[in-house]
Amino acid sequence: MPAIIDEEQVWEALKEVPDPELPAISVIDMGIVRRVQIDPQTSSIVIDITPTFAGCPALDSIQAAIKTRLREFTSQITVNVTMQQPWNTDMLSAEARQKLHSVGIAPPPMMGHGRAIPLLMGHPLTCPYCGSQQTTLENVFGPTPCRAIAYCDSCHQPFEQFKPV
Ligand SMILES: [Zn+2]
Q1: pTM for the complete prediction?
Q2: Which residues are close to ligand 1, an ion, with C-beta < 5 A?
Q3: What integer pLDDT is reported at residue 21 of this predicted model?
Q4: Which one of 54, 71, 78, 96 is separated from 11 by 20 to 30 angstroms, measured CA to CA?
Q5: pLDDT one-digit tens code per residue, 35-66
Q6: How many angstroms separate the alpha carbon of residue 135 from the centre of ligand 1?
Q7: Measured CA distances, 5 to 29, 46, 47, 91, 144 (Å)
Q8: CATH fit for domain 7-81, picks 3.20.20.60, 2.60.40.10, 3.40.50.300, 3.30.300.130
Q9: How many A from CA of 9 to the centre of ligand 1?
């Protein structure tokens, strides 16, 4: 008799899986877990995730981290990558935005309905430290493909800007 796997508990467990590049934020808050399917016959879990930025080389580690975290439920875990509904930064939860802000990364502006607008065009950047919009985009290529480096002309601090997509 296979153990019964509770879907709620699986979602809860996934909230403890951090995004590899932004450890303050879980894969749930990032909005990348699309679907959890449980097959009670075989005690298996199938998770669908969607990649964030095409350039973010984190998919393998996300898949591995999800499998590790869910091992207590079953050893039969499949993590599929789906492109059906592309991820965009509007899918970040309110909590994720707050956490980004608290680690000094300006959250991406809301983009509306899933269109990719060229990076940071026409959106004044807001400094996560002082809230000023007197900011300069310094380097589109930040520490990861997801982030850019900006500089605040008001409080004279560099900050990271999460790129909207
Ligand atoms: Zn500032």
Answers
A1: 0.76
A2: 127, 129-130, 132, 152, 154-155
A3: 79
A4: 54
A5: 999 999 999 999 999 887 655 567 888 999 99
A6: 8
A7: 22, 12, 13, 27, 36
A8: 3.30.300.130
A9: 41
